[in-house]
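== Protein entry: sequence and backbone fold ==
=== Local backbone shapes as whole numbers ===
==== Amino acids and backbone structure tokens ====
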Amino acid sequence: MRHLVKGKTLGRKKAHRTALVRNLVTALVLHERIETTEAKAKTLKPKIERLINHAKKGSLAAKQTVLKDVFNNRVVAKKLMEVIAPKYAKRVGGYVRVVKLGKRAGDAADMAMIEFV
């Protein structure tokens, strides 16, 4: 039984799941809106909100935390720290929204769009 085990496994092993979420975080920061499955979007939401909270602090430790979670892509980290985080300086939380889009044509998976508010 999975008592007190948080998060969805998304049908992947831990390393694959971690890489998937980091790729999704990187894509969301670069494009500011991505379309993915509903389960992936719901998994991504707390991760990106935590990253924005760190980026809002603006310290060196916060930058290192951001770099840790975006595949060490300095362009993405810079955009998160200098463009996205200042937009939400006075906002307490709720930086992204998940909008349900319906079923995917190929396999009828529930699709969702995740975007910055």
The longest strand covers residues 96-103. The first helix runs from residue 14 to 31. The beta strands are 33-37, 96-103, 110-116.
